[in-house]
Amino acid sequence: MWREDLEKEFNTTFMNRSITGLMMVIPFFSLIYFANSFLTNIVITVISILIFLEWRGLAKERNLTVDLLFIIFFILGYIVFQEYFLFFFVSLLAVFWFIFSIFLFRNKLELISSIHFDNNALRLIVIAGFYSSLLLLVQTIEINHLLVFIIIVNTSLADICAYLVGSRFGKTPLLKNISPNKTFEGFVGGIAASLSFGLLMYYVYQLPISMVPIIIFSSLYAFVGDYFMSYLKRKSNLKDTGSILPGHGGILDRIDSHLSATTIFTFLFLLIQTIGI
Q1: What range defines the domain where residue 202 resides?
Q2: Engineering a disulfide at 219: which of 71, 107, 158, 236 sits with its beta carbon 3.0 to 4.6 angstroms away?
């Protein structure tokens, strides 16, 4: 019965997911191709605002004053401290993802009672960290748009391959109490795809060898972000965060893996650059 449900889901949603994903990716890749940082920053800002509004709409408790004060604080902090301020949020969110992943893989998420859609601080930190990560990648000299390309493709590739492998060959549930249809086989398929992509980027663009483990490690956290959103939805008895994207649901349903993977990728990339590896 469980395997039949997986195959049924694959047949009914894969085409919609593919078309929607393609429609979302083409405009962003166009910006990357033309390497227009200004327009890319606008797109990043719009996406982050949409994420913020959708998440806020899912919360039962909202505090407009706190939201406005945080936005003003973020804008002023960026104007005064620039990249240092952005890296602070990236580091803060990277620490959060690391701690969350420990509880996740130990199957102890029930010990973190503050993980829910109503947590105003959680929403602001996750979105601010994700937004800061993309801004820092775009501002990186010389290979900025290549980095954005790598993180988008790597995360999407890991997600798609995990879905394909899991739907066709998945037999072993992975963290069934959070997301019953995700399998260990799908997880391995996603990581393998990320490894292949990392090696391809290394050879094609002559990147430092340190980029390969960064790419693989960020794909691991793509799964963490996916489980994070699944856990939030399960606690709120939601199937999707919205209905704006056919086959995906809401924006958060589509961007969940990127929230964590982009942050981890940026944090590790900048950390290794600073160390000089």
Answers
A1: 2-275
A2: 158
